[in-house]
Every structure is written in structure tokens, then in C-alpha cells.
Write a structure and sequence with these properties.
The complex is a heterodimer of chains A (510) and B (368). By secondary structure, chain A is of the alpha+beta class. Chain A has helices at residues 23-27, 39-49, 75-88, 94-100, 112-120, 167-177, 209-221, 230-237, 254-262, 297-326, 334-345, 351-371, 374-394, 400-413, 419-439, 441-457, and strands at 56-61, 64-69, 106-109, 123-128, 134-138, 183-190, 196-203, 249-251, 266-270, 276-279, 459-460, 463-464. The chains are: A alpha+beta (510), B alpha/beta (368). Chain A: Belongs to the GerABKA family.
Chain lengths: 510, 368
């Protein structure tokens, strides 16, 4: 199933997944392993390892003992393909077991801890009297749901396929997109308690070896007891864990992962997680969508610019309103003066308080909307819309111009194709808002400068976060904020230091 | 380690500088227009148009006036009469009474320019009559006199019917050697306010007036037109040899002027004007389908423009006001001239100007 296998050293399994009887070891009569020769001795050992769990089943058949955890394995497969086949054999030895059972994934081990681990993951352990080996046949219950649409990263054009919670399925989806033997899959296990499977994918010949080694090094350094979701692994891998900005992309779109891999990025799949980590990643790439390549370049450029404008709008628009109304009435255009003044004249609060209040209400609505079940969520939207939209203005609580501005910047924050980046944009608005309220435009600029300094200092797996703007890499500009026709975007971005820079010959492409 | 140092610095930076003065919009009395008159030989009568942003107020603006010896002093005095603190940051138009203009505008221009909250792009106008009366009059159809004036100035500047009348322009010509300011004239006519031409200044003192028609020729030399328009009266001989009065209206006038100092002693200035325009309207019997007539028309218009330009130059010379900026040409052509405004005004009286117009019509419209 996997091309290559590198089990984390903490687990130290002695056998690999490669199938086939290992006769050399069997031929040795003397018991060198820590396994007993009799099932009567083994059974209490396994029971003890499992802390006498009640779903551990032990079945005996002549000289064969079968151990499995009831709900982890496929009962039908056990009966048909293992027990049913073994019964047809004349005698039961390791060879006949290997020969008769009709399961793809069979291995044997003399390491009990490894066997226990495999049993948790859905293997059946077979023990033959007199042989200090455990044969493991993997027949896990396939409880994963079918592949469905990506809920959080929807696109109008392009494939409507999202990852699900199964690592194997997710990797196979990527294999379908990238049918090349160069796609390397390296296997890791994380969490001393959870033993979560993690796959590291990259394309050999494109991804820089240096980068791959860096990720592997980082992965090997991490020692945690549990790993539930890829977003947690993402935070473990971040260069700057104090930063508010996400330094790696979490995506549920296979096309986006494939695209990243083709650009020399590295993907990390975590079993049980619908999101795949793509790294290294830059700030501007969070505002790019895979869809930009599916539509014609002028439209794609327009949409990308729109997202950038929306980002600035979302961060600074409310702040500018507050600063202008509190300190710099001079800059308000003459035509806006009367409408602005009239809408403000009934509001009893200073502009800063008014803006913070409204932003807070919008955040409340958003958070409530994310937590509520879908059916109630719609009602919530209507209630929020009416309560905030109409009643707050009529009650003289807020001015309607601010309402438009706040709604606009909330809307703008949702244009970021990455949900994590959208969250960040919404949050960094608040400190800048306070700075605007206390120091005016000086504060806004101060906040902007701090933000910029921070962004310049950031890195993602050692790659500069603000690339291609700082350090300036002009050849990457053709596919960042703008997107030029394919003829001009024939080079892979320098960010990942790809081994193969040229994507295709520009003369052979329109 | 570094971050331990940065944090206190940031906090100090924030706290120490955190004492900017708040001017919350609705708590501020926004002066949009201001007018100055002479109250007596010393004191100034200042009229301020203050924007009312209360939706329940009957009038959109509040007119305050006060007498003081300085313009800022009058603001302090007027502040006694208002519930909101008066601020000049939204000032858009400043009007000066003719009497003040004749006494000198330098002080007023300076005090405006020195106030950082006042934009350099406010419009300056000189009022024929009283500024107080112009602003304080209860116009039937003008709810907000400040906005009306501002829009009018903006519109006329865009249409190139008046010369750039901003504070910056006035300051520039006040302080540059070899150029005198020209400021639009404004007059209340019944229930409207009209632009009545331009006031020409010698240094900072108003010395004469030009009608809107004559102001056109000042701009012709001083600036370039990009899309101006004008109505010209011509005397033509038609095919029958009869004299005929023809009125033409030109629009999208594009000009470029080339001024050369040909003789620094007299001084003699050669002005070459290249003008193209579209014939928008023509009144009189003339056959436009005949290309000869168009050539004739072009020639006549060119002559007319030449004559009238010279007339305006002569008038300004009489008043000794160099609104055309000939002094700038002199200064840039003569090395080490160390020209002062006083010297130039002496020379300017004797200046000889030669104007040649190269006029062509780009379009005459559909004619049958």
C-alpha cells in the first residue's frame, strides 16, 4: 500500500509490511523472541497488555489461537477469508496459514507490543502452538465515510472533492491526481498514546531534498502523547509558535495539495483528519485559490487583487473610520460630512466604543453561527440581521454608516480562501482599532508597521513568509498577486528551492 | 532577550505619545467658509459659515460673525457664541472683501497657510461688496452657502473658466519673483452668487479687475488649456464682400504657449500660442462646407485672439500687475539677474509683447 515505510524509532517494529513468509527465521528451532511457545502462556500476556478489556476475543481451533478486538475487525472477513480458509488446510503451520488465508496484508512478528498495536488498528493475531510468532492479518472495519464535497473551501469551478478522515483514502486520492512513481510517501507514527499515522508526501525531483530533510528532522523531534488532528501537528511544526499568522496551509482540497506538491511543497497527511498540511507557505499564497488557475487569467488577476483589497479593507476600514471621526475630521470629503455627522449625532458613545461594540456583536454572531446546528443557524442569521441591522440604528445605538463599514469588513474577511487566514484577519482588526481610537492615523500606521515588521520576520519552514515581496523575487510576481497567462508562469516559485525549476517549455505552451 | 527590550519601548512609545487632542466629529463646529471685511481701519469683521449637523435643525448652516484684530482672534471670539468647539479643518472657501484686498492680502494668506489644519487647496475669492452680506444673506434656494460656493469654485476650475484659485496657487505667485496673483471675483446677484471675472494684484494688493472674457487670455499665456471654451465675436467679409458679424463658440480648446525673451533690455517677449479647438456653434451666414471659408475662419479667429490678448496685456501693464508670469520668463532667461519684484515692476511697464497665434479648427461638426 505504501511505497516506502519509515516507522518512528520509538516503536521499533522488527518486521516490515512487505508480505511473504520469512522462512529463515522460522527454521530456527530455538526460541530467541520474547514470545512464549504456548498459547496458554500468551493469552494472559495479551490480556494483561490490554488491561483485561472485555472486547478482546480469543478463539481456539486445534493448535491455532486467534486473538482480536471485537469491534475493530471485519467479522465477515474473519469468518470467510481466515477461519474458513484455514479449516480447509490439512494441517496448521505458519506456511499453510500464509498460503491459505485470503488477506492482502499479512505479516508476522515476534514483538508483542507491535502485535498489540496492530490489533488495535484492526488486525487479527494468529498464534500457532510451538511457534514463537504472531501472524497478523489486517482486516480493519472500514468505517470511513464516502468522499464528499469540501465544506469549508468551496469553489465554483474545478473538482468538487474533499478529503475524508481516512489516511489511506486521502493518499490514494492524491495518487489519482499525481500518477507518478516519483510521488514519495513516508510513514510516521505520532503520539505515545494515540499512535496516529502520519504520511509525508513529496515529489522526488521537484521538492528540494533539504526541505524534505528539514521536515523529517522536525517530525522526529516532536514527542507528544496525542495527535488528534492535522491542525495540531501544524502548530507543532510552526517556526514561530507565538505568531498569530498561520505558517502552513490546512486544506481539504486534493487539487490544492496536488498543485502544491507539483510546486515543490511538502504535504503531511494525518490519519483521522480531513485537513492536509501543505508547507512551506507564504502570506500571499493564503489569498490564492486553486480556482484561479481554472479561470482565465484576467479574471483570476482581478479576483486575486480583489482579495488583497478585501484583506486591507477588512483590517483597516473600521480603524480609518474611527481615526477620522475621532481625530482627523479634516480629511472627510465635503460631500460625506453632513451624512456622517447626521448619522453620528444620535449616537451616545464615542466612535471607538461604538466601533468596538459593533465589531464585537458581529464576532458574536459569527461564532454563534459556527457553533449552532445548521437549522438553527439560519434563524440566528435573520435575528442577528434584524436586531443589529435595523433595531440598533433605530435605537440610536450605532450609526448606520458604521454598520455598513463593519458589515463590509466582515464580508471582506470571508473572501480569504483559507479559513485560518480569515480568522487572523478578523482578530488583528481589534488591536489596530484600539490604536486608531487612541492615537488616530498615527496609531493605524504604527499598527501597520508592527504588523509588517512581524510579517517580515516570519518564516515558514525557514522560507521567508513575505516572499516574493520581501526578499524581492521578481520572477515569482507573475503568479502571486496577479496571474499572467500560462506561457509566462512556466517556472516554479523560488520559495521552495525546487530541484526542477522549469515546469514546461514556454514555447510549447499558449 | 530582544523582545524584553522592545516591549517597554513600545509601551513608552504608546503612552508618551498618547495625548493627541481628540476632535470628535459631532462635537466640533466645522467652519466651511469664512469671509473677511474691514470693520474699521484696524479691526476685521469675520463671518463664518458653520455646518449644522443636527438633522432636526431648521437651517443647515449657522452664520457667526465677530470683530477682532486678527483672524484667529475672531475665531476665539466667535467660539463664545457656539455650543461646539469651532475648528477650521474643514475650511473650503475663504472670501475677502475688495477693500481688504486693496490693502493687502499677504497677512491673510500667511495666517491660513500657517494653520496646519487648514488645507492648502482651499479656494480663495475676492468679493465685490461685503463678504458678510454675501454669506449672511438668506438665499431662497441655497440651503448651504458654504457647499454652494465650494461646488461653484470646483466646477468653474474644472471647466477652466477661472484660473486655479487655491491658497497654494496664491501663495506661489505671491512669493515667486516675476509673477503676480490673480484671484477670482465673486458677487452676490440677487438670490445667486456669480463669478464676475478676476482681480489682478500687484504683489499682494488688488489693483484691477478683468472680466471673465478677458481672464481667458490671462490663462492662455499663464497656463495651458486642456478643454476650455469661449465665445468670440468676429467681423468677416462673406462671399458677397459684405461685412458680417459672426459669433462663434469654441470648445475643447487646447493650447500650448511658448514664451521667449527675445530682448532682455526693453524687455521684449515673444509669445507663440498654438491653439486647437472645436467649433461648437456659429451664428452668421457662412458656408462651412467650403474649405476656403474654414481657412478664413481659422485666420480670423487667430487674429481676434491675438488682438484681444494684446489688449489684456496692455491693461495689466497699465495696472503694473504681471499676472502672466513674464517675469518668470525673464528670470529664467537672464543669468545672474538677481531680479526683485520691485525691479521687475519697473521693467514690466516698458515690456513689449509680441503675440502670434497658430489657430486651427479640429472639427466643425456636420454641416449641410
Amino acid at each position: 500500500m505504501f511505497k516506502k515505510r519509515a516507522i518512528n524509532k520509538r516503536l521499533q517494529p522488527k518486521s516490515s509490511l512487505e508480505n511473504g513468509p520469512q522462512t529463515e527465521e522460522l527454521a530456527e528451532p530455538h526460541n530467541t523472541s520474547n514470545l512464549p511457545l504456548k498459547s496458554d502462556d500468551l493469552t494472559p500476556m495479551i490480556h494483561e497488555k490490554f488491561n483485561n478489556t472485555s472486547d478482546l476475543k480469543v478463539k481456539k481451533y486445534i493448535n491455532l489461537t486467534i486473538y482480536y478486538i471485537e469491534n475493530q475487525i471485519n467479522q465477515q472477513e474473519l469468518n470467510q477469508n481466515i477461519i474458513g480458509k484455514i479449516k480447509q488446510a490439512d494441517e496448521i503451520t505458519t506456511e499453510t496459514v500464509y498460503a491459505s488465508i485470503a488477506i492482502n496484508e499479512v505479516e508476522d512478528t515476534d514483538d508483542l507490543s507491535y502485535a498489540i498495536l496492530r490489533m488495535i488498528k484492526g488486525s487479527v493475531a494468529l498464534f500457532i502452538e510451538g511457534t514463537p510468532k504472531i501472524i497478523l492479518a489486517s482486516i480493519p472495519v472500514k468505517e470511513s465515510r464516502a468522499l464528499s464535497r469540501p465544506e469549508n473551501e468551496s469553489q465554483v469551478t474545478g473538482p468538487q472533492l474533499g478529503f475524508n478522515e481516512s489516511l489511506a483514502t486521502n493518499v490514494s486520492v492524491i495518487r489519482r491526481y499525481l500518477s507518478t512513481p516519483d510521488l514519495c510517501n513516508e510513514f510516521f507514527v505520532f503520539g505515545t498514546r494515540t499512535n496516529t499515522a502520519v504520511s509525508l508526501l513529496y515529489i522526488k525531483g521537484i521538492a528540494s531534498e533539504d526541505l524534505v530533510n528539514r521536515v523529517k528532522h522536525k517530525l522526529n523531534q516532536i514527542e507528544v502523547d496525542a495527535l488528534i488532528d492535522s491542525s495540531v501537528l501544524n502548530q507543532h511544526l510552526d517556526d514561530h509558535s507565538w505568531s498569530i499568522f498561520p505558517q502552513m496551509l490546512l486544506t481539504e482540497r486534493p487539487d490544492r495539495v496536488s498543485d502544491g506538491l507539483l510546486n515543490g511543497k511538502i504535504a503531511l497527511f494525518v490519519d483521522g483528519s480531513t485537513n492536509v498540511i501543505l508547507c512551506p507557505f507564504t502570506f500571499i499564497e493564503f489569498f490564492e485559490s486553486r480556482e484561479d488557475y481554472n479561470i482565465r487569467w484576467p479574471i483570476a488577476t482581478f479576483i486575486r487583487l480583489l482579495r488583497i483589497v478585501a484583506m486591507f479593507l477588512s483590517i483597516f476600514f473600521t480603524s480609518i473610520y474611527v481615526a477620522a471621526l475621532t481625530f482627523h475630521y479634516e480629511i472627510i470629503p465635503q460631500a460625506l460630512l453632513v451624512p456622517l455627522g447626521e448619522s453620528r449625532s444620535r449616537v451616545p458613545f464615542p466612535p471607538l466604543f461604538e466601533a468596538v461594540l459593533l465589531e464585537f456583536i458581529i464576532e458574536l454572531l459569527r461564532e454563534a453561527g459556527a457553533r449552532l446546528p445548521t437549522k438553527v443557524g439560519q434563524t440566528m442569521g435573520i435575528v442577528g440581521g434584524i436586531v443589529i441591522g435595523t433595531a440598533a440604528v433605530q435605537a440610536g445605538f450605532t450609526s448606520n454608516i458604521l454598520l455598513i463599514i463593519v458589515a463590509l469588513s466582515a464580508l471582506a474577511s470571508f473572501t480569504a480562501p483559507s479559513y485560518t487566514m480569515g480568522n487572523v484577519i478578523r482578530i488583528i482588526r481589534f488591536p489596530i482599532l484600539f490604536m486608531a481610537g487612541f492615537l488616530g492615523f498615527y496609531g493605524v500606521m504604527f499598527g501597520f508597521c508592527l504588523l509588517l515588521i512581524h510579517l517580515i520576520r516570519l518564516s515558514s519552514l525557514g522560507a521567508p513568509y513575505l516572499s516574493p515581496f520581501y526578499p524581492p523575487r521578481f520572477q515569482d510576481w507573475v503568479d502571486s498577486v496577479i496571474r499572467l497567462p500560462m506561457k509566462y508562469t512556466n517556472k516554479r516559485p523560488t520559495l521552495t528551492r525546487p530541484a526542477d525549476v522549469q515546469k514546461y517549455d514556454p514555447d510549447k505552451v499558449n | 532577550m530582544k523582545s524584553f527590550l522592545i516591549l517597554p519601548v513600545l509601551i513608552i512609545l504608546l503612552l508618551v505619545t498618547g495625548c493627541a487632542k481628540k476632535n470628535i466629529l459631532e462635537e466640533t463646529g466645522l467652519i466651511t467658509t469664512v469671509g473677511f471685511d474691514m470693520a474699521s481701519s484696524e479691526s476685521i469683521l469675520t463671518t463664518m459659515v458653520v455646518l449644522q449637523i443636527d438633522p432636526e435643525a431648521k437651517r443647515n448652516v449657522d452664520i457667526l460673525s465677530s470683530s477682532a484684530d486678527t483672524s484667529k482672534g475672531s475665531r476665539i471670539d466667535a467660539n463664545l457664541k457656539t455650543p461646539k468647539e469651532l475648528q477650521a479643518g474643514q475650511l473650503r472657501v475663504a472670501l475677502y472683501n475688495e477693500k481688504i484686498a486693496r490693502k493687502g492680502l499677504r497677512y491673510f494668506a500667511d495666517t491660513m497657510a500657517r494653520d496646519p489644519s487648514v488645507s492648502d487647496l482651499i479656494y480663495i475669492g475676492i468679493v465685490e461688496g461685503s463678504a458678510h452680506d454675501t454669506l449672511n444673506h438668506d438665499y431662497k434656494n441655497i440651503p448651504d452657502i458654504g457647499r454652494y460656493l465650494y461646488n461653484q469654485f470646483e466646477q468653474l476650475t474644472e471647466q477652466e473658466q477661472i484660473l486655479n484659485p487655491t491658497l497654494q496657487d496664491v501663495q506661489q505667485s505671491l512669493y515667486s519673483v516675476g509673477m503676480d496673483p490673480i484671484i477670482p471675483l465673486v458677487k452676490r446677484k440677487g438670490e445667486t452668487i456669480a463669478n464676475t471675472g478676476s482681480a489682478i494684484l500687484r504683489n499682494d494688493k488688488m489693483v484691477g479687475k478683468l472680466s471673465p472674457y478677458k481672464s481667458f487670455f490671462v490663462k492662455l499665456i499663464r497656463d495651458d488649456f486642456r478643454a476650455g471654451n469661449i465665445e468670440l465675436h468676429l467681423d468677416l467679409k462673406n462671399a458677397d464682400g459684405k461685412n458680417e458679424k459672426v459669433v462663434t463658440v469654441l470648445d475643447t480648446i487646447k493650447t500650448s504657449s511658448d514664451l521667449k525673451l527675445t530682448d532682455p533690455k526693453i524687455p521684449h517677449i515673444d509669445a507663440k500660442l498654438k491653439i486647437t479647438a472645436r467649433l461648437l456653434e456659429i451664428r452668421g451666414k457662412i458656408d462651412l462646407t467650403n474649405p476656403k471659408n474654414i481657412k478664413l475662419l481659422e485666420k480670423k479667429i487667430g487674429q481676434k485672439l491675438e488682438q484681444d490678448t494684446l489688449k489684456v496685456i496692455r491693461y495689466c501693464q497699465e495696472k503694473n500687475s504681471d499676472v502672466f508670469g513674464f517675469g518668470e520668463v525673464y528670470r529664467s532667461s537672464v543669468r545672474h539677474s538677481n531680479l526683485t519684484m520691485k525691479e521687475w515692476h519697473e521693467k514690466y511697464k516698458n515690456l513689449e509683447a509680441h503675440v502670434s497665434v497658430d489657430f486651427s479648427l479640429v472639427r466643425t461638426g456636420v454641416t449641410e
